[in-house]
Specification:
- The protein has 426 residues and is an alpha/beta fold.
- The protein has 19 helices and 13 strands.
- The strands form 3 sheets. Strands 1-6-5-2-3-4 form a 6-stranded mixed β-sheet, sandwiched between helices. Strands 9-13-12-10-11 form a 5-stranded mixed β-sheet, sandwiched between helices. Strands 7-8 form a two-stranded antiparallel ribbon.
- Strand 3, helix 4 and strand 4 form a beta-alpha-beta unit.
- Helix 4 packs across helix 14, helix 9 crosses helix 10 and helix 14 packs across helix 15.
- The protein starts with a helix and ends with a strand.
Amino acid sequence: MKPIKQELEDRGLLYQNTNDDVFALIDDGKSDFYCGFDPTADSLHLGNFIGFMVATHIMRRGNTYTALTGGATGMIGDPGWKNSEREFLGMEALDKNQEAISQQISEIAANMKDFTGDDLKVEFINNKVFYENMNFLDFLREVGKYMTVNVMMGKDTVKKRIEDPSQSISYTEFSYQLLQGYDACRLFTEKNVILQIGGQDQWGNLVTGTELIRKKYDADSFALTWPLITDSSGKKFGKSEGNAMFLNKRKTSPYFIYQYFMNTADEDISRFLKMLTLIETEEIDRIVADHMLKPEERAGQKLLAFKVVEIIHGTREAELAEQITWFMFGGWDKVAELAQLSTEDLETYQNAMGGLDYSDENFFEIIVKSGLAKSNSEARNAVSSGAISINGNKISDSKYDFSEDFLENGALLIQKGKKNIRIIRK
């Protein structure tokens, strides 16, 4: 196994760090670390996945990962590069989100253990417990005493909001960095966590933690960050049409993530394979060299898409995403393929491709409800023009009765043109 600094640099996963001494400690398995997520939603997103890959490389060297969910900090909201304050969430919503995120991390960690064969150690903590018996005066004495307003105002995320006359920052958000710094202190004293990791936009918060530990305990601790990722066109990584790609398959299907990476530009394949998979970097260089000989075959995109979905959702979901892609874009008999699916796989196909569960809708209603038309009049025009087919047969009768067309497994394939395909389940 490579030294961790070389591993992260070779993969493009190291942006900055406080002190190079940490790398030897990581390699020796003496650098337990944490990475935190505020439960502002009930799912992590693809951008967070990069952090989990960094964590995996560190865990593989024998270091324990403390996954911190911010039940306390989530009540405040990180001002990091936002133009306005976040909406506050209630305790019930935060607790629900915290449980969901912890479950996601557990599932991805289990997949990683299977793929690597390593005993990856993950522990969980909700930072709400740090503040349950602390009042405001206690916090000022424990934390506020050690941090100067001068330094706090110099943080880029704060400075941006102060200097822009069209923006402002509340005392609540201004204090966020102190809360995150105190998280680092508590983990340092209670769990011997000496390393914080985060995206490059978290640098100011992370070094608040290292500074607080230095001043309170006269001790060294460390921070490192990974870069924020854009693709070769400058678009922010992990978003499709401006929307976040979630790791919860009920919010973003594995097929949709698969397709996201199938659309990767050739010039991004090497970088994303190195960042987002565990394939050795030297092997990736060979894979990409072969890919570039016949880029039209999209071998690099297929491997990247499969590997990312496999890590996030498991091998079976990656295989299904691959099968659905063949189903959608292949030239073979789609109805025969559909007829062979189990009830569970049929549901996965429907979640990926769209459609609905049949409940006595008429012909126009299933066209509209499945998203193939916006209105009955548009559906009527599509039928009269011969654009609609059921189970591969074009339908021109606007009063067509499809009730006998459901396959034995309860599926029906409705299609508009070649690419707009939906599944109706009975």
